[in-house]
Amino acid sequence: MKKLMLGNEAVARGLYEGGCSFVSSYPGTPSTEITEIVAKYDEIYAEWAPNEKVAMESAFGACMAGKRSFCGMKHVGLNVAADPLFTISYTGVNAGMVIAVADDPGMHSSQNEQDSRHYAKAAKIPMLEPADSMEAIEFTKLGYEISEKFDTPVLIKMCTRVAHSQSVVETSDRIEVKKDYEKNPAKYIMMPGNAKRRHPVVEERTAALVEYAETASFNRVEEGSDKSVGIITSSTSYQYVKEVFGDKFPVLKLGMIWPLPVKLIEDFAKSVEKVIVVEELDGFVEEHCKNLGIEVSGKDMFSCIDELSQNLVADKFGKETACGVKLSDAIPPRPPVMCAGCPHRGLFYTLAKNKITVHGDIGCYTLGAVPPLSALDSTICMGASISGLHGFNKANGGESDGKTVAVIGDSTFMHSGMTGLVNIAYNASNSTVIILDNSITGMTGHQQNPTTGYNLKGDPASKIDLEALCKAMGIARVRVVDPYNLKECETAIKEELAVAEPSVIISRRPCALLKYVKHNKPLVVEADKCKSCKMCMKIGCPAISMIGGKAKIDNTLCTGCGVCEQLCKFDALHAPKED
Length: 579
Known about the structure:
Blueprint: E1 2-6, H1 7-17, E2 22-25, H2 32-38, E3 45-48, H3 52-64, E4 69-74, H4 75-80, H5 82-91, E5 97-103, H6 117-123, E6 127-128, H7 133-150, E7 154-159, H8 160-163, E8 166-170, H9 185-188, H10 192-215, E9 220-222, E10 230-234, H11 235-245, E11 251-254, E12 256-258, H12 263-270, E13 275-278, H13 284-291, E14 296-297, H14 310-316, H15 344-353, E15 357-360, E16 378-379, H16 384-395, E17 404-409, H17 410-427, E18 432-437, H18 466-472, E19 477-481, H19 486-498, E20 503-508, E21 524-525, E22 544-547, E23 550-553, H20 563-567, E24 573-574
Parallel strand pairs: 2-3, 2-4, 4-5, 5-7, 6-7, 10-11, 10-13, 13-14, 15-16, 15-17, 17-18, 18-20, 19-20
Antiparallel strand pairs: 1-8, 6-12, 9-11, 21-24, 22-23
C-alpha cells in the first residue's frame, strides 16, 4: 500500500516491518515522533526511559535476550548515551539492535550543531543515512540485517528535514524474529582481558563492512550528461542536489555514511573531471576523499555552519535561484515566547525582580532567558543547571550564596538532575534548586515521564514523589509553591536563599496547554483605570499588548492565570465581574 509518511513515521514503520520487539527512548526533537508512533503498534513494547543512556542500555539488554530492539534520540542525546555506545560496539549483539540519532542542522530546537557521523567513526559502528521516507523504512529494516550479519549495533542518522518531511512510501508485512540467548562471558563481559580480545574483532568487522559498502545497493552512482563535475552527497543534501540539477551531473549517493567505500569513490572520481562533496555541517565525506588522495571541493564552497537548501546549493554552483519567491517586504521577527498562562512565567518574573543569578537548563523554561524576563544566566545541557550551581557557589567561597539558584524541569530532573542534587547534598554547597514541575515533558510535545504517573501509552504507572526523592537524597529543606502566586514565590525564594544549607523549591502547576487543565475566564482591562505604567508588560505574556497607550488583553489567548493582575497597582486588570 502506498501512502505519504513523515520520515520519523517511516522509521517507526520500518521497526514494525523489521520485526522489532522492544523500543526504549527519551524524547528529543527531531526524533520524538519515532517512538510515539511505534507505541501504536501492539506487537512492539515501547517505553520512555528517564534518559538516553538508560534507553540504550535497555535496548541492548533486549537484543541480548534475543529480541530485535531500538532506541531513538536527538544528537545531544547521543552524548548522554555515548558510554554504552562505545562498549556495545565491542560486545556486538545477539538479535539486531538499531539506534536512531536525529541531527538538527540550523539548531531549530537545539543548543548546538553537532555532526553525529563522527560518533559512528569513533565508535566503529556502521551508520545508514536515509534521504527520504521510503529509505527510512528500507534502511531501518536493513539495519537489522546488517546488525545481525556483522554482529554490531547500527546507527540510523536522521536530520530535521528528513525526519519532518513527507514522501511516498510503500508498506509491507511484518516479520517475526527471535533468537535464543546463550551465556557468553567472553563476548558480553567487557573486563580488560575480554575487551582486548574483542577489539581486533571490531577492526575486522570494519574492514568487512567497507567491502560490503563497495557494492551495496544503498551506495549508488546516478549517471549525468555533464561529466565536468561529479557530486558526492547523501541525506537531505542529495535531495537539494537533485532538485537543482536533476540528471545534469553524475551523483554518487551514499546511503551508508560509515564506514565509507574506497574503490567506489575512487572509480567515481576517475569518471568525472572534478569532484564536489555536498554535505551539511562538517566535511566528513570530504576528509575521507582527501585521505584517499582524491582532489575534491566541498567546505571551500559550503560552510560547516547551518543547514543547506536548494537555493544555497544553486548559488554556490553559480546557478540562478532554484526555487522560492522573495517577499518585497521584510517579515517582522517573531521570537519564541512562553505561552500565555505558562506556569514558569511568574517564577521567572520573581527571580528577575530580585536580581537572582539563575543557572538554567533544557526545556520550555529556557525561554525565561528572552526579554522582557531575561532571567537566565546560563544554559548548557540536560542537568547542568544543578551541577553548575554547585560549582559556582563553591568557587565563590560563599559570596554567591543567597544570590544564585538553579532551575530545572521535572522531566529534566529525572533525566540527569538527580546526580547534581546528590552532589550538592554530599559536598555541602549552600545551594537552592528550583524544580519547575509542570506535570509533563513540555518542550518536546507533552510526553509522560516518571513524575507524571503515566507511561508512554497513557496507562497508569508508578509516580515518583519529588518531595520524598529530594529528601531521600539528603535535602532537608523541600517546599512546594504555586508559581501563579507571586507573593508565595518571592517569600519562598527569599527564605530558602537566606538559610545556610541546601534546599529545594518545587514550583508546581501543570502546563497550561494540557488538555485536562481548566482555565479561568480571560481577564479584562478597565481602560479608565489603566495608567499606562506597563507593569503588566514586564512578564512577557503574549496575551497582553499596549494599544492606544492602554493595556489590552486578547481573550482568545488569556487563560485567566491572574499573574498580570497581581502586578497592576491600579486594579485595572481583573477577572470579569459576574452579571
